[in-house]
Input
Amino acid sequence: MRSILEFLTPKKVTYYINERFTIRQALEKFDAHKFSTVPIIDEMGKYVGTLSEGDILRYIKNVNHFSLENAESTRISELTRYRSYVSIKVDAAIEEVFALGLSQNFVPVVDDSDTYIGIIKRSDIIKYLFEEYERQK
Output
């Protein structure tokens, strides 16, 4: 069985946001890169969760008089997140990645100190499984 590192999209080529970003900064990142969910890291580079466009929309819906000033002053760490993607350690079993890929668009990968090192995309998991299926025909 393959190592999860063979599936890893490294941090340097992924998009993520810092937990100190404001709502406006997060919205600009979503708009620029056309993602609906991104990993959140802290100042030390540790994975702390994910932010979705839906989390921001729920916040806007629940705040009276939402404005640009509000978006520029509210940090994403203040938002309630509907769901946080589960991360895995770099030495996790590949079956764990497959299981998480059923319910997550990507699987965040962390090292032994919980530092974010990249993601495994669901599309890469599906591609691998399809290739294995074709190989076994």
User: Anything to note?
Assistant: Strands lie at 9-10, 17-18, 37-41, 47-52, 88-89, 106-110, 116-121. The chain has one domain: 4-136. The domain at 4-136 is CATH 3.10.580.10 (CBS-domain). The longest helix spans residues 122-136.
